[in-house]
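mind reviewing both lines:
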Amino acid sequence: MLSTRREFLASAALATAAAAAPYLRAQSKTAPEFHGLIVGHGAHRYRVDRLWSQADPAQTPVNNCHEMVQVRDGRLFLLTDHAKNNVLIYAKSGALLGSWTLGLAGAHGLTLAVENGREVLWIADTRGRVVQASLEGELLRELPSAEACGAYKPGEKYAPTEVAVGPDGRLYVADGYGSQFILRFDAAGRYLGKFGGKSELQPGKFLQAHGLVFDSRGPAPLLLCTERMRNEFQWFTPEGEFVKSVYLPGAFLSRPVLKGDLLMAGVCFGMVPHDFRPKMKRGFVTILDRDNHVVSNPGGQAPRYTDAGELLVMLQDQPVFLHGHDVCADDEDNLYVCQWNAGKVYPYKLHRVG
């Protein structure tokens, strides 16, 4: 029992210090810059943890951390393009649980799917391959290349960046670094057709069809694609008919990620005031609500809309992130930010605080 006010205050101070201990390193001289910083806006604010990953670079090196997913048992699977370590497996604490590789030096897109009750991973490799693997790293099957299935003529560039799986099991492959088509396959991997193609102006076509996901927030599922270079999200029917787009000025988007009613994405490149060209090292994260209005920009400036409802140009606030390539939301609403071309760093964790 605490008998005096002095003892009570001393005990309270110790308890407060203990609770804050994981974040005291943010104030130390050895902590990385921005570690412990609160980022984001409104109801979506986060504490930056740049020391989350406990992986040893000498044992499990990475080049670019491209994408991450969380499986049913809570583990986090990170895709990298280091041929020695294509996949790193984490606990939410940051402890490294394992790793495996398929030797894919262009591993870029990571999609979690369920087939016959079993979780599997689709991996898009920008060197022209789309493969399916088990969570243990076993190669299960591979889709035919764009030329082999008859989608492209010989010599047409094919550099797939992402796979989406439809509600009926059909597969959609974004050729985001190649000829800018979305290729459609049935669940067995037979080619069905393609849509899109390259255009700077036409709706439903792309300059860079970077990522894909099926959006089931509306009355009917739609295929959602990021058009990075035009700062857009675009929606299509499963047959490839263009439905709508949302313009996010200043945000050169990576893949779309859905978490409940929220839509989010890492921003790889950004703009600077009065200059609308893409700039390096201007990354952040953007979060949209069910109505596709931006509600928070962790690492970026607060979103601003005009009285007419037009979104103003979004800019980086502080260089917490250099090039946001993916964001993964876990089952506790924390975020993990993967980066391209950021000094071979592991993902940063954003602890939800608001």
Q: What stands out?
A: The chain has one domain: 36-352. The first strand starts at residue 38 and ends at 41. Residues 1-29 have pLDDT under 50 and may be disordered. The domain at 36-352 is CATH 2.120.10.30 (Neuraminidase).
